[in-house]
Design goal:
Blueprint (H helix, E strand, L loop, with lengths): L7 H24 L16 H5 L17 H25 L3 H12 L8 H12 L4 H15 L4 H60 L27
Length: about 240
């Protein structure tokens, strides 16, 4: 198919028309409205309780000293004069003579157990512990146990010291019983040694008596040869 040829004027007109069409298209695109941009959604706010709670912070464990309660402080304050009274009494009884100590034990021992106060019970135990006697140690242990069994304020204040004295007297009693057993075993051993020595001495005496006796058929037992019977000994004839 033969197309008609365009002249230079027609080509120029066609180019101008195409440029105008492109310019119109660009203008139309620039004037068209752009789509709205969506706003970012707001982040949900946590509840007030969760927002106010601080995040846990990991720290090293620190020992916080516990303050004693009012009852503990009161008990400690009450212990001071009572403990001082018992310790001062122990110093005083330690310097007593045996006669004065026996008189003091008799004075405290005459008081009934129901009337004797916890302080007097510990004083009685301290005085009994000065005698170093097994029977008195048993009485001292009984006095400390009576203090431990009471629930009065004075007894509660003195119970730590009573517990200490109870342990000390129990240990002293055990040691003294062990010492008595050792002394008894030593005495038994000494008694056996003395008995063996007596038997050995008797055997030695018997041996000495046997050695002092004349043997049978000796010259002293021949008749006429004993110079103690009043006769002269037989003389051999001269050659």
């Amino acid at each position: 198919m033969n197309l008609p040829r365009l002249s230079s004027t027609g080509l120029r007109a066609l180019r101008c028309a195409a440029g105008l069409a492109a310019s119109a298209l660009l203008a139309a695109c620039a004037s068209s409205p752009q789509p709205p941009v969506k706003a970012p959604e707001p982040t949900p706010t946590p509840p007030a309780s969760a927002a106010s709670a601080p995040e846990p912070v990991l720290t090293s464990a620190v020992a916080i000293p516990v303050q004693p309660s009012g009852d503990v402080v009161t008990t400690r304050l009450a212990q001071r004069p009572l403990n001082s009274a018992v310790l001062n009494y122990a110093d005083r009884t330690r310097a007593m003579s045996p006669a004065d100590l026996a008189q003091e034990i008799a004075r405290l021992g005459d008081l009934p157990d129901a009337v004797r106060s916890p302080l007097e019970e510990l004083q009685f135990a301290v005085a009994l512990g000065q005698t170093r006697n097994s029977a008195d140690l048993n009485r001292a242990l009984g006095a400390t146990q009576r203090v431990l069994g009471k629930s009065t304020d004075e007894a509660l204040a003195l119970q730590p010291l009573a517990r200490l004295l109870n342990m000390r007297y129990a240990e002293q009693k055990r040691v003294e019983e062990l010492l008595d057993k050792q002394n008894q075993a030593l005495r038994d051993s000494q008694r056996r040694n003395d008995l063996l020595n007596e038997r050995l001495e008797a055997m030695r005496a018997l041996e000495r008596s046997l050695n002092s006796r004349p043997l049978p058929g000796s010259i002293r037992n021949i008749p006429g040869n004993n110079p103690g019977n009043g006769t002269t000994p037989h003389q051999a004839p001269s050659p």
